[in-house]
Amino acid sequence: MNRRLYCYNRNIIFNMKFLVVFLSLAVFLQCEAKLLSRCELVQQLRSHGFPEDKMRDWVCLVENESSGRTHKIGKVNKNGSRDYGLFQINDKYWCSNTSTAGKDCNVTCADLITDDITKAAKCAKKVFKRHGFRAWYGWRNKCQGSLPDISSC
Asked: Would residue 65 show up in a list of annotated catalytic residues for this protein?
């Protein structure tokens, strides 16, 4: 009986340690994700060559797609695909969900959820060139006719 109790207590302690490590890791990873303010976003977009005359549209798109979070992974869509990163780029056509870069942007989806938005920006420009802003529901539903003020940026 004592042996059973000892093993039971040991398992509880092990599970609690595992839980603490898991939660700590989750918090750490969440802290690593970058949340861009509106002006930080404008600065990043400018540094990646986004055109000034469309800047308010891009800012609106990002704010409504990812809320400025570089590491955002969207919920599974009706067709089983997912959206990744700052621009919420879809994995059905644009990024590969394997360790090998592929699809139309020739990137992995993991490339789109880093704090360095270089690959995500290049891919977003490609999506835009092919489909315009209408490729993003966040822009369609929230940005037509109502764009954010970036004059202080």
From this structure: yes
